[in-house]
Specification:
Layout (H helix, E strand, L loop, with lengths): L4 E6 L3 H11 L3 E6 L2 H11 L3 E7 L7 H10 L8 E4 L5 H9 L4 E3 L5 H50 L5 H20 L7 H10 L12 H4 L7 H7 L1 H13 L5 H12 L20 H16 L10 H9 L8 H9 L1 H10 L5 H15 L7 H4 L1
Parallel strand pairs: 1-2, 1-3, 3-4, 4-5
Helix pairs in contact: 2-3, 5-16, 6-7, 6-12, 6-14, 6-15, 7-11, 10-11, 11-12, 12-13
Length: 379
């Protein structure tokens, strides 16, 4: 036998609770609360079991408006519908109740058919809404997964042309996420919530996309660049930004952030970076964070022109200003996540299914020499 759905009836009148129970108990399991305080305690423990709350407006200890306010503060109003029950509600009180998220309103004296129908309709409506939310959430997830894969493919093309394994992209994303999380705690005014951190971290994978225009003999040169070669290499930041600017006809937030990172991740806090010589707060925070993450990974990773530098030595070089000037606050963030960063990067691999797919597609594109950056290809 199927288990009945549970309804929470909240009313200080025992008679009213008995009447509603008589009307509904043949179809539902009834949970009773004689005041708002008791209702909140029940919701705290059994929210996931309850499919609807029938809430009286006027009650001792905690009235219906206070219960609704609490449900909003805790986010419960999004999980369970509320039907207000009262015969004494003023228009202003009902306006307030609707503002706080009630779904329906039933007046006393209760009509059996009306109560049964409205309860059933409210439960059905919420069930449909939850299914719709799941469908939309799945679509968003799939879209973001595709976006992430395409970004990784493009960034991997650059990495493989640069004679690297692709781990640099993963390292930058990991370091960027950790640094932004630390920065969000130190500077709440920056409003770096989880969505913004994820957006910047994903966009960071495109920081070197402009290297696609740099000749391979310069990208993979084992020794120092000549002044002329360095000037050519420096063009990659503006070139990457130009590619993304051409692509971003619809004002996509991800591409806007990636543009900032591409163009300005080689700027330095003292104004001695390139391509625009920005300094201090003129440099977007996204580009500043990726810049320090990029330098750290460049130091601690083996390259065709250098051996890897130990973690502690790399941190000291950054702190001492030997790799360019960074915001002291970001250096503090780097030091605060140093142990977690070292551990996280040691565990990064590209062996999981998603990265294997990225690598396979990247190798296919490279094998067919199809790496011209244009709008159709990036789409």
């Amino acid at each position: 036998m199927d288990q009945k759905l549970k309804i929470l009836i909240v009313d200080d009148s025992e008679l009213n609770r008995e009447i509603l129970t008589d009307i509904l108990e043949s179809q539902y399991d009834i949970i009773e609360a004689e005041n708002g305080k008791m209702a909140v305690e029940i919701l705290e423990k059994r929210l996931s079991e309850i499919v609807i709350v029938m809430l009286d407006l006027v009650m001792p200890e905690m009235d219906g408006i206070q219960v609704l306010t609490m449900m909003n503060e805790k986010g419960w109003i999004n999980d369970v519908p509320v039907v207000m029950i009262s015969s004494e509600a003023s228009p202003s009180a009902m306006d307030k109740a609707y503002d706080l998220g009630i779904t329906d309103y039933i007046t006393r004296p209760f009509d059996t058919k009306t109560v049964q129908r409205r309860v059933m309709n409210t439960i059905a409506l919420y069930s449909k809404q939850k299914k719709l939310i799941k469908i939309v959430a799945q679509q968003i997830y799939e879209r973001e997964k595709i976006n992430s894969m395409m970004i990784n493919i493009l960034s991997h093309i650059v990495e493989f042309r640069n004679g690297e394994s692709g781990l640099h992209v993963i390292h930058i994303k990991t370091a960027t996420s950790l640094l932004l999380s630390a920065l969000s705690e130190k500077c709440p005014e920056l409003k770096l919530d989880r969505d913004k951190i994820n957006l910047i971290s994903m966009a960071s994978a495109l920081h070197d996309i402009g290297k696609i225009v740099i000749p391979e003999h310069i990208l993979n040169k084992p020794g120092r660049f000549t002044p002329e070669e360095f000037e050519i290499m420096k063009k990659h930041s503006a070139a990457g930004a130009d590619i993304l600017k051409e692509f971003n006809s619809n004002g996509n937030p991800l591409i806007e952030v990636a543009y900032e990172i591409c163009r300005w991740h080689h700027e330095r806090f003292d104004g001695r970076g390139y391509p625009d010589g920005l300094k201090g707060s003129e440099i977007p925070i996204s580009a500043q964070v990726v810049a320090i993450a990029d330098v750290y990974d460049a130091l601690t990773s083996e390259r065709c022109y250098k051996a890897a530098i130990p973690h502690e030595e790399a941190l000291q070089m950054i702190a001492d200003g030997k790799c360019g000037a960074f915001d002291p606050l970001l250096i503090d963030c780097l030091m605060s996540v140093a142990d977690r960063l070292k551990e996280a990067l040691s565990q990064n691999t590209i062996s999981d299914t998603n990265w294997s797919s990225v690598q396979d597609m990247t190798e296919h594109i490279l094998k067919n020499n199809d790496i011209t950056i244009s709008i159709p290809i990036t789409r």
